[in-house]
Amino acid sequence: MVGFASLVWGPASDKYGRKIIYIAASIFFIATSIVCMFAPNIGVLVAFRALQGISVAAFLSVGSGTLADVFPPFLLGTANGLFMIPLLVGPIIGPLLGGGLAQAFGWRSTFICLTVFSGAVILPLLLLKLPETQQFKELQKLKEKNPVLAASLKEAEFIDSNPPVFHPPWVPLRFLLEGAIFPHALVASITFGSMFASLTEFPIALSAAPYSLSVGIIGVCYLPQGVGSFLASPIFGKLSDYAASKNPDEPEARLVYSTLSTLIMMPPALLLYGWALDYKISIAACLIGQFFIGASCASYLPGIFGYLAALKQSAAGAASAAVQTTMFVSAGALIIVSSVVVGAIGMGPFFTILAGLQFIFSLAAFILIMKKKRASEVRQAESPPPKSETA
């Protein structure tokens, strides 16, 4: 539901503005959390957890559009590096806090916590402090208040000539068919999906022998992945901007370090994690694998979303939504697949398959990036130098 709902929220924010979508999604999240809190059976709980996914989808796709509104292209990687930290660390903090709450007060306490925090902190901040950032809407407001200042803005003509439109949900999916996006969307999908598959299988393995850990301690075991994500995301966000500054004529160069990182780090991390749990060896090996799984995923996402924002600035929300859809659908599918395949062939073989797919997709994307990067360098070398003013 997170994946498919992104196809509506992202384009809607491009057309109607970012703030109204944030507020609507937050109210819907609070409402569905309250129903989850009082769910009388598992059927109601699962149904409203799915509806929660609709609201959650708004924050990534709309957030990426917001960054494209606010930050210049040369800072989009750094901005996305910081923006991705909550997305990647949230699934780690959730089990840590949720495990403690569930063990102490029961599972309903997790939804009480979510409802109170969203209603008392998040929603007031959105209503009172969050400015609208959608450039077309803000320019129209400025024209009414101060036409002279609006006319003097350097980008006013460009913004006015590109009024936002609402793209139907199937239109963002067309972005995925573009050669400049498709291979990188595949890498994002397998990277994000593999991370979520590891998160799903982790508590199942740790609650069984020989580990036999409690719910609270299992929550603590998620921390290494969160630390890896927290460290890698801002670093590779900056590296994305650095690569873009060195190759201003080739947007895909922004992805060179991110893709190389997933190519080098993710396959070995998945192999270590899967086979450590398969042979039930020291839990330290599993945690090391989780650390690098988190770091690898966090190293890639700032680059891909910074790239999309720079490539499709006037439709940044829709473009981000398209890739976000593939990521979350992949994660949902791999969670279902892992629950079946691990039981049939074991943790080691399953994560070996994921490592192989990760290597193939990342290597193909990296080769494409390097080819375009070299072609851009050749064009620059062959172009005649600009004539001086005196000449």
TrEMBL record:
- Chief location category: membrane
The identity of this protein, by name, is Major facilitator superfamily (MFS) profile domain-containing protein
Q: Which residues form a coiled coil?
A: none
> In what residue span(s) does the Major facilitator superfamily (MFS) profile domain sit?
1-373
Please verify whether the record's keywords include Transmembrane.
yes
Q: For this protein, what is any one GO molecular function term?
A: transmembrane transporter activity
Q: Which Pfam families match?
A: MFS_1
Single GO cellular component term? plasma membrane
Q: Which UniProt keywords apply?
A: Membrane, Transmembrane, Transmembrane helix
SUPFAM superfamilies given for it?
MFS general substrate transporter
Q: How does it sit in the membrane?
A: Multi-pass membrane protein
Q: InterPro entries from the entry?
A: MFS, MFS_dom, MFS_trans_sf
Look up keyword Transmembrane helix and say if it applies.
Answer: yes
The superkingdom listed in its UniProt entry is Eukaryota
Output the Gene3D superfamilies linked to this UniProt entry: MFS general substrate transporter like domains
The species this protein was found in: Chlamydomonas eustigma
- Spell out the subcellular localization from the entry: Membrane
